[in-house]
Amino acid sequence: TSMEDAGESTRGCENISDSEEDRCSENDFGTSKLGTKEFWDDAYQKELETFNDIGDVGEIWFGEESMSRVLRWMDKAKIPENAAILDIGTGNGAFLVELAKHGYKNLTGIDYSPASVELARSVLQAEGLTDVTVKEMDFLSCQKELKGFDVCIDKGTFDAISLNPVNTNEGKRQYVQALKDVLKDNGFFAITSCNWTKEQLLDRFSEGFEFVQELSTPTFQFGGKTGNSVAALIFKRVH
Ligand SMILES: C[S@@+](CC[C@H](N)C(=O)[O-])C[C@H]1O[C@@H](n2cnc3c(N)ncnc32)[C@H](O)[C@@H]1O
């Protein structure tokens, strides 16, 4: 038995097996503290203190490569520099920094954790990137406050929402609805997830979205089976 991981962090992943959701009702989906606001408030409060002390931005969820692979896709898809881009659940804002350094000029990050918002703003400021908007906002109740985005990026946020111990099913539905509302027609959605397989994501984002492509992610072998530790998919908003 071998477990190969090309250096990507899967910390925080619940390692739900492929068929888990088929076997269980949606309610039985594993929940955890990673789905609570308290967890993220606490985590980013600590990361904010560390950043202020030693300038370390903290955890890059799923590793640097998880950002580069989306950026490579954006280059190939010729997403223009002035495209309106939303980072859903931006955390420390590291993706916003990468996007800005890559030349993107119309960037917004949101997060429901005030400590995350403060951290992301501090990280951007330290990089001299003053033209990026970061808002404290719950994506599930952002009612029409956000709209007209060309590209929405999610790295680990739909996962976190899926792990919420309360209102998990409702949360997932609200997420899909909010995403439909904020994206322009033909806008793109780039999701990186460690809790859902490609098939489950295709199923979740079927109505109102068209699958564009899968970005290749490192594979592992375990017990004679081969799988991916994360799924990275691109969807397009369609009517
Ligand atoms: C696994 S972290 C990923 C952070 C960041 N995207 C990254 O890749 O480093 C999940 C993030 O989602 C945020 N989040 C969870 N639920 C949210 C919601 N309903 N609205 C906005 N942000 C949310 C958390 O505060 C946290 O920053």
TrEMBL record:
Q: What is its main location?
A: cytoplasm
User: Per its UniProt record, what CDD domains does this chain match?
Assistant: AdoMet_MTases
In which compartments does the protein localize? Cytoplasm; Nucleus
Name the chemical reaction catalysed here.
L-lysyl-[protein] + 3 S-adenosyl-L-methionine = N(6),N(6),N(6)-trimethyl-L-lysyl-[protein] + 3 S-adenosyl-L-homocysteine + 3 H(+)
* One GO BP annotation of this record: methylation
- All copies of the Methyltransferase domain together span 81-213
* Keywords of the record: Cytoplasm, Methyltransferase, Nucleus, S-adenosyl-L-methionine, Transferase
Annotated stretches, region: Disordered: 1-29
Pfam families according to UniProt: Methyltransf_31
**Gene Ontology molecular function:** protein-lysine N-methyltransferase activity
One GO cellular component this record assigns the protein to is:
nucleus
Q: What is its EC number?
A: 2.1.1.-
Name the family the entry cites.
Belongs to the class I-like SAM-binding methyltransferase superfamily. EFM4 family.
Its biological purpose: Protein-lysine methyltransferase that selectively catalyzes the trimethylation of EEF1A at 'Lys-318'.
* Listed name of the protein: EEF1A lysine methyltransferase 2
Source species, please?
Answer: Oreochromis aureus (Israeli tilapia)
Q: What is the lineage of its organism?
A: Eukaryota, Metazoa, Chordata, Craniata, Vertebrata
